[in-house]
Amino acid sequence: MILTKKKNYNNVAQKETEASGRFKWLLNTGYKKIWVEYSGIAELGIDVNKIEISKPNRKGVIEIKMPEAEILNKDFDIESVGEPLTDAGFFTKITKEEETEIFAKAQENMMNAVESDNTLFEQARERAKELIEDYIKNAGKEMGKEYTVKWVD
Fold first, then answer.
1. Which of 2, 59, 64, 96 shows a CA-CA span of 20 to 30 A to 127?
2. What pLDDT digit, counting tens, does each position of 61-106 carry?
């Protein structure tokens, strides 16, 4: 694997339950709101086993077929999560299960953000192309040859 792109994520997850019951307008009974900030890191890159590289032709052109970038690691930074901010109505408590649910939602939100960021995947792929092309050209110079890279999609 070639790690070519790291992205830090900072986001907020929240859950809100509206007031309910007979005296909801007076006591706000049943109202709950949980709000938590979190961070994470996504690492993207290219699986080198999927790269197809031709031998140089007579003109020193090497054709390379590059796979799409993929997620190498998604790390939800549990240590970045502080104490959740909460607000609750009269006679209403926020349970540990609800706190656990909001942390799970935070992780899911981060995963979805990474997976849907097409620009991030393209940047990772382009960076891998730069690294591979530089490597091939420098290796050629070391051998006294001049190589040109042609990308095949």
1. 59
2. 999 999 999 999 888 776 776 676 666 655 667 677 877 787 788 7
pLDDT for residue 34 is more than 70: yes
Contact 54, 62 (CB under 8 A): yes
Q: Which of 38, 7, 22 is nearest to 107 (CA)?
A: 38
CA 44 → CA 5, 119, 124, 140, distances in Å? Answer: 5, 12, 6, 28
Separation between Cα atoms, residue 120 and residue 115, nearest integer Å: 9
Pairing of strands 70-77, 32-46: antiparallel
Phi-psi region of 52 (alpha: psi -120 to 50; beta: other; left: phi over 0): beta
In angstroms, the Cα distances linking 120 to 5, 8, 141 are: 8, 11, 32
pLDDT bucket at 30, cuts 50 / 70 / 90? low
